[in-house]
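Hey all, sorry for the wall of text incoming. These are the two entities for the joint prediction.
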Amino acid sequence: MHEQARNALDDAELVRRARAGSVDALAELYARHADAVYDAALRLLAAPADAEDVLQDVFVGLVDALEKYEERGAFGAWIRRVAVRRALMGLRRERRRVDAPTAVLKTPVPDPTRRITAREAVAALPDSLRVVFVLKEVEGYSHAEIGAQLGITPRASALRLHRAWKVLRNRVGMP
Amino acid sequence: MIGHPSFHRLRAFARGESTGRAHAAVAKHLEGCARCRTRVRSIRDIVDSVRAPAARAPIGFDAIAARAAAGERVLLPVEEPRVTAPRHRRGLIAAAAVAVLIAGVVVIDVPEAGAEKSELWITPEAPRAGATLSLRYRATTRLDDEARLVVRARYYTADRGGPPQTVAIGELLRTDGAWFEGSAKLPDSAVYAVLAIEDPDADFVDTNAERWQVLVHGDDGRPLFDALFARMGDVRMRNTRLADEITRSMVALYPERPGAWYFRYGEATLDIPRDAVDSVRAEFRPQLERLAGAARMAAVGPDHLWYLIMFARAMGEREIADHWRDELMERYPTERPALQQAVFRAAESHSGDLDGYLATLDSIWRSAPDEAIQAAASGWQAAQRLGRPELLLRWSERIEAFRPAWAPHNGLLLVRYPETRAEGMDRLRKGIAALDAPGDDRPLGSSAAEYEATRRRTAGLYLAALGRALLEAGRPRAALDTLDRALETGWNPELFRAVADARLALGDTAGALRAFARFVADPTTSAAFADSLRARLGAAAALDGADWQAAVAAARDELRRELLGASLNRAPLRSRLRLQEPAGAAHEVRLDEGQITVVAFWSRYCPPSFRQLDELDDIADRLTRHGVRFIGITDEEDAAAVAALFEREGLSFPTYLDPERDARNAFDNRSTPSYAVLDTNGRIRFTGHTAADIVRQVAVLGGPWGGLPQP
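and here's what came out:
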């Protein structure tokens, strides 16, 4: 496929071609959406290696997953939601047991001598708070949707958002 | 608006989530408040900064193409999880579930206690089925002035998955000092039982953390396999260490049973990293091969095959599992294990196709209606997800044939639809009648008062649902009578709101005012919500501010009378607690220091308790800002583990370890989640298991009332 022709195609046409087995179409979808998928996974997981795993898995599994894509909304939004769910699966596996003795904090410890950015402060939140914060404030999920994703009640989701903000306010020095 | 809006309100405003009066009030406040304007701007800046794209994919498409070219497949979670519709009646159902949960509080394992610890000596140590047990009991402080005590048992039969029964099985009489002696007869069908001792009126129950466990033994002197199975099912959610030990006993005593290896494998792989699973599998593979070989050589029953399949599946040996599944379904097509495997197969082959799944479940159920409990249960769940009333009714009837006690819960679901409203109302009426009659299903750890409170609360929820259904069925008079009966079952804000809505719909604004006032008066109702209700009611009834304030004040008096009238007034068994901070330092607490105090026992090993930690954290945050002392007590022995848990979960409420068992002995505490609220004189006024009740109880003792920010 020529570069110029590829750019002229919209996502819907690329999806149709990827479904039919076109590797070029898949490559073009990757070029257009890989950054957004990786960025969304990194926000949720705060671990570049884990986010890269999500990115790879999403695109390796994309052709099969497209069988269930109903083209009701923008492809970019759909693949991002799939990436979010895939990222959450990884988190759930890690946190399967609340008393897992090997649980290790993987969030970066901020350098106390410099002012922390909001993104760093979010990355440093505990998993349970960061996930709710990102799903609500960045991805725009409702508390009911977050509850369904995480297996918690909408109220628990609201409480975690409240706590996440409390921690963030302290860390970024909000008035 | 008095003072600054809460952060919660500012955030909702900044994110465009507030509406109506709440939005207008914040907007007006911002006009004159630079501090809050800065906060709103900060909230927006933070969100914008986190939302902004910042990272680029670190790899190219080549890596993807290489994995795909190698034939790798990845199954992505394409389906959106189903979101429970935020309908009012869902709240009632959830509350009913909570009420049922309260009755079955999960109990922690207290390794050893101090001077107040009770003892129960049980002989014989290896009883046979239906045995008479000789018992010798040294009473806990709360029971040592009784002349006669009752022995109750929660027992399990060989019917795996069947609900346990709880019955009185004997009595004890005082001999001398604090010792009691007597006997108790195990029910003939019991394979495993947990015992508890209580006074004849069941005012206090000594469960000793459910550690008095009896395993029925066979003629060969081994505990029955079913006894070990039942014990593991009983303890696994509250004591992972003990569950691990039980599965070790299972494989040591019953190495020929696939079930023993299936459970042992499950425990062995529970907490290990993913990359260590392969080596564990390698250790277990010879056992799987041995068991599969034995099954080929000799005729084995359906139960044996079922566990062989499950063991193989857990080990990732799909081919072996499929082979034995085919064998099971061919040899024993109408036995429960085969019917259950047929359901599992249907779930695999109809992923995402609920209608097709339900049609297959239907044919499984028709093949053996008296045995297909798994098909009935799975069909009932699928019908709920589909939300089609005729299917919900059909599958409700099928599951109720196996589990009659589920009928009232099904009633709550069925009354939502006009097509099945009559059947739903019928189930609710029967549920209410059963709760009106003397009950015989009191859970082992519940006192008579706790049991009665739970039954009243459940009856209230059924009555509220029935009242609303009557209203929708066009029978307003009967609806109001029913709703009034619901109100008699106790203070329940959810119920008040349901009644208020119903009365407003009927044009009874005075009745709605009283009910709404009770809802608003409750300290757990948010101020913003109270404002919106007042506006709604005011529009309907030309209500002035004085009427509303008077109604809310009267409702608060009513809550005060109701809670204080039924409150306790006893001193803790010790007033000084020697505790330990998670950081390691010793921490001494005096309970008689003139402060309202909440003592909350929690455990990360107890799922109901773990689920309440978020709410506990929020309540502690709100109450401590108003001068209430909050003391969390964990059963954890490892301080570093508590600190790590708090860091991981973002919790911050004051919590302590209890190495001397001071707190548990002071409150005679045996369970989690469990709370005690003490007044300013240091006396215990309330105990309970529901975090939301704490705010209400603290309020009537002089703590903060209403106006507390909600998240």
